[in-house]
Amino acid sequence: MPRFSVIVSARSVQGFLRACLDSVLEQCHRDVELIAVDDCSADATGAIIDEYALRDPRLTALHQRRPSGAGPSRNAGAAQARGDYLLFLDGDDTLAPGALAAVDARLRACGEPDVLLWDHERMDVWERRRPSGDGAFLEAVGDAVFDAVQRPDVLGVEPAAWNRAVRREHWTGQGPAFADGPYEDVPYAYGSLLTAGRVAALDQVCVTWRERRRGSAVTTPGRHHFVAVERYEELFARLDGLLPGEQDSDGTGDGLLPLRTVLHARMTDRLLAILDDPDRIVPADRAAFFRAASRCIRAHRPSGAPLPAALRSYRAYRSLHGAQVLRREVAKELRDRGEAAARTAFRRYYGLRLHTPLDADLVLYGARGNRAVTGNPYAVDRKAREIAPQLHGVWAVHPDAVDAVPAGADHVTVGSRRYWELLARATYLVTDGDFPGAAGRPGQICLQTHQGTPLKATGLDSHRYPGTPAGPGPGRALEHADQWDYCLSANQHSSEIWQRAYPSSYETLATGFPRNDRYATATAADVRALRAAFGIRPGATAVLYAPTHRVRPDGAVPPLDVAHLAAALGPRFQLLVRAHPYSGPHQGTDPRTVALQEEGAVLDVSGHPHIEDLCLAADALLCDFSSVLFDYANLDRPIVVHTADWDAFRLTRGVYVDLLSGRPGDTPGVLAADEADIAGAFHSGRWDGPAAASLRAAFRERFCQYDDGLAAERVVRRVLLGEDDLLPLLPPGERRTAPSPRAAERAAARQDGATRTLTGPGAVVG
User: Fold this and answer.
1) Which CATH architecture has domain 356-512?
2) Alpha-carbon gap, residue 206 to 157, rounded angstroms
3) Cys-Cys with 35: which of 77, 262, 343, 461 at CB 3.0–4.6 Å?
4) How confident is the model over 577-627, as pLDDT tens digits?
């Protein structure tokens, strides 16, 4: 039998679950079984659990047949447990390193108590950590072993599932199970202590508990929070039945009075906190919740216990609560007063237009900070014009980017009167960033398409790294995420990152990226036409160099010398240099680039708006740490990664994938440290050899998971036309890939030969 059974209840926590499972399975104390219970998750939570179960026999995967909530899921996991002690975690929490070893040592030192309590820390969405508040009690207990009657203040410990180990015989004998529904941990947490004969404590942080912004019952307002009152009513009824007739030491009074006093104080604090939390109790329900909570608090008030002034009447509560709200509003007004001068007449106009009817056929598009017409929004717009012509699309662009709008496309200038009107009236907002000033309104649907698969830290994850580009910051990113209704994903990796880095209540759609449809639909003729348009020499091997955006002081040395590389490659190769759109033209390239372009060794393609065209025209991709490598993998063409400043980059920007690990699925192809190494890879043939092809196949399988050429149609039908289901993904064997430049030339040669055969001497005519 294992020493510990750790039960993880998980529902739609794909962005956090791997860290949770790893924190258990990577403990130095390995005598543990992990029972992970998927509560009918709508995302890949269940698949992640199954993946881990295949890798580690200590993990047992359970899948609930119907959504049941955290309480029944934990109970189901505990019913399968075989360990000496039961520990419970939520799917977004983590065990501290060494926690199980410390727990095991403490249990043995205390003679195997029924319950062992330990400390925890709370981590908010910014990953700021703060202590639990239980540390003083746990430290004061020391090595003592006690029960609740001897130490009534033990009931002041956080009533949670994840801050204690319970002996399995105690669980099965006393039945401190979890309830069905919200606040399911109240009967378990208090019941495990009230029925325990021996309780011990460990003054050590063993669990990190993650606060969620969206997606849980606790963070969703509604009348389900009234259940908290019922939980405490049930708890006091259970307390009355535990020690009937128990007397004080002097033979008089209620022997349970100390327990009642501590429990009543905890209940009062918690119910009032729920009442004052607008994320739980909406104003329309506040009076009803007050009455229910007040009745419960009054009914179980021990003799001599004070009654909070706010509970004397609802009028008293409103008066005190109103004063608190007024103070907060005054403080906010003072903070905002400095910004009031920046509120323009157009913003006020926007506020008025928010009360006018939405235009059911109006779609507002934006891309690349509203300075381009490209990317995923552009692909969605093109597909909408094809299959939903009744919709009217308008592109929002800044004044300095009006020239980027294609001929015939409707556009509006950001900040203009018409912009604020369309922003207020459009039913659909489609962007890979955000629309300046957007507030959102009921009935408006916001689609976040994203700009690519995340390699660099993004959203909440980015604030830990000093090299993050200047911008609105993670706080503003969260405000934007709260406006999203949908966001797009090209692979499971992205879906997990989005949930963790942008925690909110949007729905992630496994559609693939619309802009990558081109890699499945382009023909040999398209590839040849693009190469001719860019001026690629016939027969030359075109290498697209697309570096990522770097935040560097002026005058810093670029990571790669393009002139040196072009000379080392020689005339058989032709470099297409594409500076990152956020870097500005030619930034990061050698000053001789212009001269090299005139010589034909380098083509500067930074001004071309659609990187998909550049990828289709190239025989190979040379990049460093740009997300374009995830998209380019769709083409199944060689990828060479320039690794010169990898260590500095990952430490200053943060990365999700170790491109240099050499593991299948992480590394997309050949790794090269400098210009000579890159040239050597191309001259030796390693760039297109079997080892590189094998790595590329694994990388493509992992990151091109949903890209099958139908992404844009999926998005238009699901989001803009409101169809219930996504078009099914094509199986990998049925997906098409655009031909390589070599294959396109061979196809042209065959076609030319066939034409000469049909029209040459002796051809049969008519």
Assistant:
1) 3-Layer(aba) Sandwich (3.40)
2) 15
3) 77
4) 998 776 544 333 445 566 667 666 689 898 899 999 999 999 999 999 999
Residue range(s) in the chain whose domain bears CATH number 3.90.550.10:
4-220
Nearest CA to 512 out of 376, 657, 385, 632 is that of 376
**Has residue 547 got a pLDDT over 70?**
yes
410 vs 752, higher pLDDT: 410
d(CA 424, CA 585): 35
Confidence (pLDDT) at 337: 46
Other Cβ atoms within 10 Å of 764 Cβ, number: 5
Dig out the tokens for 531 from the structure.
Answer: 């190469």
CATH of domain 521-550+560-705: 3.40.50.12580
766/762 Cα distance (integer angstroms) = 13
Out of 21-25, 410-414, 602-606, pick the least confident.
602-606
Alpha-carbon distance 556 to 132, whole Å? 46
Q: CA-to-CA distance for 571 and 686, rounded, in angstroms?
A: 18
Q: At what angle do helices 227-242 and 283-299 cross, to 10 degrees?
A: 10
CB-CB contact of 33 with 2 (8 Å): yes
Q: For helices 185-194 and 70-80, give the axis angle rounded to 10 degrees.
A: 50
Q: How many helices (H) and strands (E) does the chain have?
A: 27, 22
Tokens representing 32 are 């543990």
Q: Residue 703: which of 640, 610, 641, 632 has the closest Cα? A: 632
Q: Which tokens is 461 given?
A: 């994850």
β-strands 94-95, 199-210 pairing: antiparallel
Matching residue, tokens 């890979």: 432
Q: pLDDT tier at 674 (50, 70, 90 boundaries)?
A: very high
Ranges in the chain annotated CATH 3.40.50.11820: 356-512
Question: Tokens at residue 564, please?
Answer: 């040196």
Range list for CATH 3.40.50.12580 in the chain = 521-550+560-705
Least confident of 162-171, 316-325, 537-546: 316-325
How many residues are listed for the chain in this entry? 766
Q: What is the pLDDT of residue 502?
A: 93
Going by C-alpha positions, the residue among 460, 448, 457 that lies closest to residue 489 is 448
Q: Which tokens is 376 given?
A: 């995923």
Query: What digits encode the pLDDT tens for the residues 331-385?
Result: 454 444 433 433 445 667 788 888 889 999 999 999 999 999 999 999 999 999 9
The residue that leads in pLDDT, 410 or 124, is 410
Supply the angle between the helices 17-25 and 45-55 in degrees, to the nearest 10: 20
Helices (H), 558-710: 562-569, 593-599, 611-617, 628-632, 646-653, 675-684, 690-703
Provide the mean pLDDT of the chain: 88
CATH class of the domain whose range is 4-220: alpha beta
DSSP string, 166-196: EEHHHHHHH--PPPSSSSTHHHHHHHHHHT-
Band (pLDDT 50/70/90 cuts) for residue 84 is very high
Q: Do β-strands 85-90 and 4-10 pair in parallel, antiparallel, or remain unpaired?
A: parallel
Q: Taking a C-beta distance cutoff of 8 angstroms, is the pair 321, 287 a contact? A: no
Integer Cα distance of 474 and 483 in angstroms: 15
DSSP H helices, 426-545, are 473-481, 492-501, 518-521, 524-534
DSSP letters, 132-167, are -S-HHHHHHHTT--B-TTT-GGGGGS---SSSEEEE
